[in-house]
């Protein structure tokens, strides 16, 4: 018996990078909030002075020529912000009434925003100047705490004296800066203003950095000698490391973008798995016919008919019906012992999995529209959207509309990150970007690449418009494509994704290590002499191969390009490539390429004649009207996948980078302003903890119950499971088992599966198929069975999911109200009695844990309880639901034991203890001698050939029946009874059809037109039939005019 090691979740590269980012952010924030040992101006954020402007005395002397004064309320407002609100940064917007609007902009071209000046009161405030200008957006306003804004009107003295210095930028800058440092006081008063030694007046300047604009804040203050010292704010080392990590994340997102796609969409173990069902007892008999006219088998033929070219998988079955021994229009009895089922992973549940999480509940009920099965909504969801006013058009049910609406909502939900990214750009970043471009253009400089394509180009750039058009085309085309074309699209994408995902990167590393030590293996110690040149040669060979297998983006892109090359490459070039591939076989063996390239496979190119290629060109021109096909179809599919993939990668890089920056800046704001924010963070953390705990109790309830049901179900077929589980994993196959209840009174006599056709694929309709055992001995049960057992008529059952979820939601709402009350009380009394933020935080935490104490300490937890599986009521209900359980599974293939042409006389008549023929499925066949009815008579000698349609061999005696095919049609049989050479012939027509299980449709457009023409005229009891041999058939009047309808 094989064993599986249970491994815990492994941290991915993104988790490690984010953890490193958190550590760096903490260090950077701690460094920015720490208090320096002295009040000197030299620090990591403020380097040594780059320029000493002038002394206070000389500045005052020159200031008498021109100086600025502010409104009388400026000092009061500034004092309020600094002393009462503890502002760490004050952004002052200045206006110059009486001057042109762009007076300062024209006078100070090297200042980024001449109307905006910043007063920083601490090192923490200056650290904000190192960050991006949109830090308030990216930090979700957490870094904007303590940042205040102030607007002031300035007046120059003498009036309009600033206009004298329009061409002298340094003089204008000196006048404005010295006025701010003096708090806009009169220079004749010889005052130094209210700035402390650690406070600065800052403005952002534009510098020429090799033809590119470089924006830097320059902060000025008075030193101890009365000199004005200006310093440039440069990035802290920790900030540089943080920005470097963000760049690394961008690169990793590009290289690993396919890994963001859920595995459940393309991996075989999640998409579908094969399970073998071995029929116990005698082999089952299926009646199968290959026909060019499926309609001849009656009105129910459409529920049994499959198109051969659209049949997925079923390779053994298709080989059987395509063999030379199989003839069309003849019914064959196929003996079957093994059936391979195609089972989607989401339809099965392991012992430790229940679909009761919030995500599963929302997805199943809203996206998959299972909410329509609720009793209050069932009638409404199955009714027509037009109700009783439907004029006779096709009925559209409400739940179909809701599915479309849910799909639309899902698309909007998927697009929400990009919508938020665009909102952030147009609300904040676009304005900042325009200002930077304008400032750079004033000086004839260019803007550097900001690290974001959206910020560099804008979301309405031609590149992004092209991407939007690609997505719209993909959506529209995918919506109008036929199902076969969609399958082709999925096939190409899934194959590439599977090959990309299921290649072991450890094997690649092992291969590189093996080659790296090869010189020492061959030459021993002398390998050190050859190691350097060998290493260069090895790098040329191994690095491209390693990059292909290690980085999923390169892997998927190159696979798509290889498939594209296969379909575009001429046959002559393909032959040359094959010859080169053979010549380099020795090189591949030397480098052990087989270790990493084993089992590589690509889509094979089909050969087409010149006429076929021309036909494919015509088909491509008609693609929007009809369908796609052939080589050019594959070309279009691969190009669409490749372009869409890179478009998604580009947008995904921007989205992930944007949200990583949001996380980094927000986390930094929480650390910097911990005293103010932690109270809110604590409440949010408590809400998250209680919500997870409340709804986890619901999941645990159903998990415990599912474990009991799972154990009891396996106990009913323990011997069968043990027999299969004894095999080794290499020999054991995934196996399905049918479980039959023993104690229920309504156990059906016939539980053998039946075939039905759904969406052109065979479905195996089973009764009691409840256990699926994979080759690693992991048992699964159907998800549908879980939902049917949770509401058994037994007191220990948990009941419907929605009732427990609503109860949990009500309990959670009560906790939310209590936490809200605690938070309001703490905030109100904290402000009233000047309680410190630390004490407020402690009070919030203590009050928030009160619901936890009541739930786990003062009130005993009843738990999920134990279910008495020996109870008569439980056993009866459990076996009743087992025996009534029915579900259809997709058929992967049918493995026949033998087949022969069907003869109704050989049908098994003992299965139902009567004379009605039955097939191997246990289906009664009404096709028998007792079903004949008498039709009209035809005069003439029966020895004459009345028609090839009615061909009598005259082997029977007078008064006996001879069964003949009507026009080669086994669907309608004639019985001819003659009463001698001169007597009349009576034609009897069966009014039933042979009970066929699978009808394989091999009709072409030509045969379908012929069949449609042949079926015309069957009206009012008079029929004109066309014989397929081209002869003129007789005209007769059938007893049942609807038998051919």
Automatic annotation (TrEMBL):
Composition skew (Polar residues), residue ranges: 922-933
Signal peptide region: 1-29
Superkingdom assignment: Eukaryota
Region (Disordered): 31-57, 913-967, 1021-1045
Segments of skewed composition (Low complexity): 32-45, 941-952
Transmembrane segments: 238-261, 404-426, 460-481, 508-541, 547-569, 613-643, 663-688, 812-829, 841-858
Record's keyword terms, sorted: Membrane, Signal, Transmembrane, Transmembrane helix
Name of this chain's protein: Uncharacterized protein
The organism of origin for this protein: Elysia crispata (lettuce slug)
């Amino acid at each position: 018996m094989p064993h599986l090691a249970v491994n815990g979740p492994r941290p991915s590269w993104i988790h490690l990078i984010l953890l490193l980012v958190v550590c760096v952010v903490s260090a950077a924030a701690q460094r920015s909030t720490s208090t320096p040992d002295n009040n000197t101006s030299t620090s990591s954020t403020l380097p040594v002075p780059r320029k000493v402007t002038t002394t206070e005395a000389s500045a005052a002397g020159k200031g008498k020529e021109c100086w600025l004064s502010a409104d009388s309320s400026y000092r009061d407002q500034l004092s309020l912000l600094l002393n009462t609100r503890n502002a760490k940064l004050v952004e002052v917007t200045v206006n110059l009434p009486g001057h042109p609007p762009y007076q300062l902009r024209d006078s100070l071209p090297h200042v980024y925003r001449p109307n905006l000046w910043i007063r920083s009161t601490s090192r923490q405030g200056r650290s904000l100047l190192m960050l991006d200008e949109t830090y308030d957006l990216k930090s979700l306003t957490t870094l904007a705490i303590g940042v205040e804004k102030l607007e002031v009107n300035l007046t120059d003295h003498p009036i309009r004296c600033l206009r004298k210095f329009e061409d002298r930028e340094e003089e204008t800058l000196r006048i404005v800066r010295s006025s701010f440092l003096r708090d806009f006081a009169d220079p004749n008063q010889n005052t130094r203003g209210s700035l402390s030694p650690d406070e600065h007046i800052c403005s952002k300047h534009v510098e020429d950095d090799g033809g590119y604009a470089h924006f830097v804040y320059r902060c000025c203050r008075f030193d101890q000698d009365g000199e004005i010292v200006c310093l440039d704010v440069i990035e802290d080392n920790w900030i540089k490391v943080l920005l470097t990590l963000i760049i690394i994340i961008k690169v990793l997102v590009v290289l690993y973008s396919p890994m963001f796609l859920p595995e459940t969409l393309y991996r075989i173990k999640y998409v579908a798995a094969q399970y073998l069902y071995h029929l116990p007892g005698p082999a089952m008999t299926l009646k199968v016919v290959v026909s060019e006219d499926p309609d001849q088998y009656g009105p129910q033929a459409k529920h049994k008919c499959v198109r051969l070219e659209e049949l997925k998988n079923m390779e053994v079955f298709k080989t059987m019906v395509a063999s030379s021994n199989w003839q069309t229009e003849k019914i064959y009895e196929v003996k079957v012992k093994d059936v391979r089922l195609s089972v989607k992973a989401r339809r099965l549940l392991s012992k430790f999995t229940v679909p009761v999480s919030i995500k599963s509940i929302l997805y199943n009920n809203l996206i998959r529209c299972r909410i329509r099965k609720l009793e209050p909504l069932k009638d409404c969801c199955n009714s027509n959207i037009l109700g009783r006013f439907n004029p006779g058009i096709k009925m559209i049910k409400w739940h179909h509309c809701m599915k479309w609406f849910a799909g639309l909502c899902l698309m909007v939900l998927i697009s929400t990150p990009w919508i938020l990214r665009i909102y952030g750009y147009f609300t904040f970043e676009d304005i900042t970007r325009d200002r930077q471009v304008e400032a750079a253009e004033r000086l004839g400089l260019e803007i550097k690449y900001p690290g974001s394509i959206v910020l560099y180009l804008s979301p309405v750039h031609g590149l992004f418009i092209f991407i939007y058009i690609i997505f719209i085309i993909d959506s529209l085309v995918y919506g109008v494509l036929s199902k076969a074309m969609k399958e082709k699209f999925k096939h190409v994408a899934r194959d590439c994704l599977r090959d990309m995902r299921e290649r072991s990167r450890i094997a690649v590393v092992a291969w590189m290590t093996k080659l790296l030590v090869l010189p020492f293996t061959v030459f021993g110690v002398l390998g050190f002499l050859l190691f350097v040149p060998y290493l260069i040669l090895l790098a040329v060979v191994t690095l491209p191969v390693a990059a292909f297998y290690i980085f999923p983006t390169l892997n998927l892109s190159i696979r798509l390009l290889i498939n594209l090359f296969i379909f575009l490459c001429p046959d002559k070039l393909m032959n040359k490539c094959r010859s080169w591939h053979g010549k380099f076989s020795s090189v591949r063996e030397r480098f052990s390429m087989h270790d990493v390239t084993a089992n590589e496979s690509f889509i094979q190119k089909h050969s087409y004649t010149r006429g076929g290629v021309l036909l494919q060109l015509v088909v491509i021109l008609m693609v929007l009207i009809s369908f796609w096909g052939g080589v050019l179809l594959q070309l279009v599919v691969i190009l669409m996948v490749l372009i869409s993939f890179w478009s998604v990668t580009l947008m995904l890089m921007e989205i992930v980078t944007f949200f990583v920056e949001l996380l980094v800046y927000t986390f930094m704001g929480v650390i910097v302003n911990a005293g103010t924010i932690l109270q809110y963070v604590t409440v949010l953390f408590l809400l998250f903890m209680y919500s997870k705990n409340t709804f986890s109790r619901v999941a645990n309830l159903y998990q415990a119950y599912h474990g009991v049901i799972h154990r009891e179900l396996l106990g009913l077929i323990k011997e069968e499971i043990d027999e299969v589980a004894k095999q080794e994993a290499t020999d054991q196959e995934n196996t399905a088992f049918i479980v039959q209840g023993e104690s229920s009174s309504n156990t059906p006599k016939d539980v053998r599966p039946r075939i039905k056709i759904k969406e052109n694929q065979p479905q195996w309709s089973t009764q009691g198929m409840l256990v699926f055992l994979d080759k690693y001995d992991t048992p699964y049960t159907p998800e549908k069975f879980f939902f049917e057992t949770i509401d058994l008529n037994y007191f220990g059952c948990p009941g419907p999911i929605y009732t427990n979820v609503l109860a949990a939601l009500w309990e959670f709402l009560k906790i939310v109200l209590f936490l809200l009350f605690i938070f309001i009380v703490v905030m109100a009394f904290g402000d009233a009695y000047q309680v410190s933020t630390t004490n407020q935080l402690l009070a919030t935490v203590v009050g928030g844990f009160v619901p936890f104490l009541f739930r786990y300490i003062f009130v005993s937890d009843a738990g999920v309880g134990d279910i008495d599986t020996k109870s008569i009521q439980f056993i009866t209900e459990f076996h009743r639901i087992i025996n009534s359980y029915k579900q259809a599974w997709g058929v992967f293939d049918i493995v026949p034991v033998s087949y022969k042409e069907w003869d109704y006389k050989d049908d098994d008549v003992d299965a139902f203890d009567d004379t009605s023929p039955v097939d191997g499925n246990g289906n009664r066949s009404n096709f028998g001698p007792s079903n004949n009815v008498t039709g009209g008579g035809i005069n003439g000698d029966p020895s004459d050939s009345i028609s090839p349609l009615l061909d009598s061999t005259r082997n029977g005696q007078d008064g006996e029946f001879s069964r003949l095919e009507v026009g080669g049609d086994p669907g309608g049989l004639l019985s001819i009874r003659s009463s001698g050479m001169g007597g009349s012939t009576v034609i009897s027509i069966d009014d039933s059809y042979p009970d066929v299980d699978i009808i394989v449709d091999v009709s072409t457009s030509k045969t379908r037109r012929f069949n449609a023409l042949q079926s015309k005229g069957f009206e009012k009891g008079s029929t004109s039939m066309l014989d397929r041999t081209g002869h003129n058939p007789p005209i007769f009047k059938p007893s049942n005019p609807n038998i051919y309808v």
